[in-house]
Write a structure and sequence with these properties.
The structure is a single chain. This protein is an all-alpha fold and about 300 residues long. Helix 1 runs antiparallel to helix 10, helix 4 runs antiparallel to helix 6 and helix 8 crosses helix 10. It is built from 13 helices and no strands.
């Protein structure tokens, strides 16, 4: 695997990111299970530990260059800090907000990503990406159906989490220009884990057998999800992948049904259909954009 950014292949990036977000939805389901018993820093530390172990071994086997020599090492530290803030705020606000409120507020992130991709990465965002992004957000609002005004402080926490996540996805695309996926995973999770471990004297609770299994499973799923998402950003622009994040809502309801037998209401299905339609618009738009380059290659 090369460390530099490969040729833009939006459809490949969309497919990888979609698979990655399906893993993140499962990750959220496992955290929802664990957070009833364990504190968020302990859960996130175990998740980071698995990622560091897996990516560290693979980096050594493949002899990837050290992140300390990267021109983007400061950016990697910034991204780790942004992710830590995003995760801490998101999972702590989940204690006070309902699923509808939480999902609606957090899914402001893809729209923020599109704006940041223009300002930071200087990406050209076409009509297809805007339609998919706005359509997906409308679908999320319909599916979530927030029935009343949320609590101010938890709502603000969730919005800040969405902004931090959006900014961190922009940094993935930026760092991918010179660093391998595994190197990014290792450095970010190492810093992430060290920060979470600092809270151990106050929050550590020794897991039982089920807790250990769930935390290890969380780490494995998070490792796979991160790898797929990072690779997606290597192939496709951030603005193209922003609307794909909305598919996470569909996976979330699917896992909710499979694990807790939750049956979504009619508005969830209506919103899901709009999200799928928006994603199809994105795929067709990006496929149309790939056609001219293919013709030039053939000629």
């Amino acid at each position: 695997m090369s460390s530099g950014l490969v040729d833009t292949k939006p459809l490949a990036g969309i497919a990888l990111a979609t698979a990655g977000y399906s893993c993140f939805a499962m990750q959220d389901a496992l955290v929802k299970w664990l957070v009833a018993t364990y504190e968020v820093p302990q859960i996130l530390f175990m998740r980071s530990l698995v990622i560091v172990l897996v990516s560290g071994v693979l980096i050594r086997v493949r002899r990837h260059p050290s992140i300390l020599k990267s021109p983007y090492r400061g950016t990697v530290v910034l991204r780790a800090a942004l992710m830590l803030v995003a995760w801490m705020l998101f999972y702590n606000s989940a204690r006070y907000l309902g699923l509808a409120e939480l999902t609606t507020l957090y899914f402001s992130a893809p729209i923020i990503t599109v704006f940041l991709s223009i300002l930071v990465l200087k990406e050209a965002v076409g009509a297809g990406r805007w339609i998919a992004c706005v359509g997906g957000f409308v679908g999320v609002v319909i599916a979530a159906n927030p029935s009343h005004s949320p609590n101010l402080i938890p709502a603000a926490m969730c919005l800040v989490a969405g902004f931090c996540w959006a900014w961190s996805t922009i940094l993935i695309r930026l760092v991918s220009r010179s660093e391998s996926t595994l190197t990014q995973m290792f450095a970010t999770s190492l810093l992430f884990g060290i920060a979470c471990a600092a809270a151990f004297p106050w929050i550590w609770r020794t897991p039982d057998a089920q807790g250990w299994m769930l935390m290890i499973a969380l780490g494995v799923i998070a490792t796979i999800g991160q790898f797929l998402l990072y690779e997606g950003f290597r192939y496709a622009p951030a603005s193209a992948l922003a609307p794909v994040e909305y598919t996470g809502l569909i996976w979330a309801f699917l896992y909710g049904y499979m694990i807790w037998a939750e049956i979504p209401a009619w508005n969830v299905f209506a919103g899901a259909l709009l999200i799928v339609a928006s994603s199809m618009v994105l795929v067709l738009w990006e496929r149309r954009g790939e056609m001219p380059s293919r013709k030039r290659t053939v000629s």
